[in-house]
Structures are given as C-alpha cells and as structure tokens.
Amino acid sequence: MNTALHAPQPAQILDGYVKMRFLPMLFAGDFMRAELNIYQYADRFLSDYDGGVWEFAQLPGGGGFMKPEGEARWHFSNPGNYSELDVSAEAAGIIVTALVLNHRSWMYDRHDEEELCAHYCERHRQLMKYAGEHHEADAIFRALD
User: Fold this and answer.
1) How far apart are CA 60 and CA 39, in angstroms?
2) What are the helix (H) ranges across the chain?
3) Contact 66, 57 (CB under 8 A)
4) Interatomic CA distance for residues 76 and 86, integer angstroms
5) Which helix (H) or strand (E) holds 74?
6) Closest CA to 24 of 35, 36, 10
7) What average pLDDT score do residues 64-81 get?
8) Distance (Å, rounded) from C-alpha 76 to C-alpha 45?
9) Residue-averaged pLDDT of the chain
10) Which of 38, 80, 91, 117 allows an S-S link to 136, with CB 3.0 to 4.6 Å?
11) Confidence class of residue 61 from pLDDT cuts 50, 70 and 90?
12) Region 4-21: what's the mean pLDDT?
C-alpha cells in the first residue's frame, strides 16, 4: 500500500524566448485582448495595483496563468461577492487569470465562436484543477465564488 502524500507539481515560471509562445498558447488568437483584460481585472480587483511586470506560469498538466512579478502579497477585493482577501502573487494571478478565462469563454459562447469558447473552457478547467491543489485553494475559490 502506498501511503505517500501527493505533492502537486509547481507551475513553471517561463523566461527567455519561451515567453513569446505563452500568450497565444493560453489565450489562442485572442491573446492581445485577453492580456489587456488581465491588466484591467488586476486594476479592478487588486488593491494598490498600478501596473507592473507580470510573469508567465505554465502548468504541469497544460495551460497556465499570468501573475504579478515577485513575492509580494496582494489584497483582493470584490464587492460583487463580498470577498476581501490577502493572497500571494501566485494566488492573485490564478484568480485574475481564472476570471478572464471565464469571462472570455462566456463572451465567445454568446457570439457563436465554438472553437474559442472550447479553448477558454479547457484552459479554465486546467487552471481550476491546479488551483484545487494549491496551498491557497480556499482563498482562491472564495475569491471566485
């Protein structure tokens, strides 16, 4: 009997030329608008966000997310669901990316863009699987509730 605990694999922060392929992989042909949405959602939900450098994190099971650079803690505030949370930069990036993936999947569903809708839904599923194993899973799902 195997009693070892499952240790989730961390996301890999990309660097160099590999970053050039990340946004099209994550957001398909819609990557320019989706990237802009990331920054807009960060401005809306992350207190004291005023722009900055973002890192690209690739998930072991496919997909990925964007996150603010560094290890600073961020205050996430969403009056729409009454969440007020302090989270790591990684959790903040997971939350913001999940919101954008969800928003864009609904938008493409409503505009009969089946291929893009399916792409965004798959990326959202991959990210939620990773979020479920994250050490800040409770805060991430509270923010997304």
Assistant:
1) 24
2) 19-27, 31-45, 89-110, 114-133, 137-144
3) yes
4) 6
5) strand 73-78
6) 35
7) 95
8) 6
9) 92
10) 91
11) confident
12) 81
Assess if CATH 3.40.47.10 describes domain 23-144. Answer: no
Structure tokens given for 140: 């991430």
For residue range 75-105, what is the model confidence (pLDDT) as tens digits?
999 999 999 999 999 999 999 999 999 999 9
Q: How far apart are CA 125 and CA 134, in angstroms?
A: 14
pLDDT score of 107? 86
Burial class of residue 140 in the structure, from the number of CB atoms within 10 Å of its CB (0-12 exposed, 13-18 middle, 19+ buried): buried
DSSP string, 11-44: PEEP-GGGHHHHHHHHHGGGHHHHHHHHHHHHHH
Q: For 50, what's the count of Cα atoms within 13 Å in the CB-facing half-sphere?
A: 1
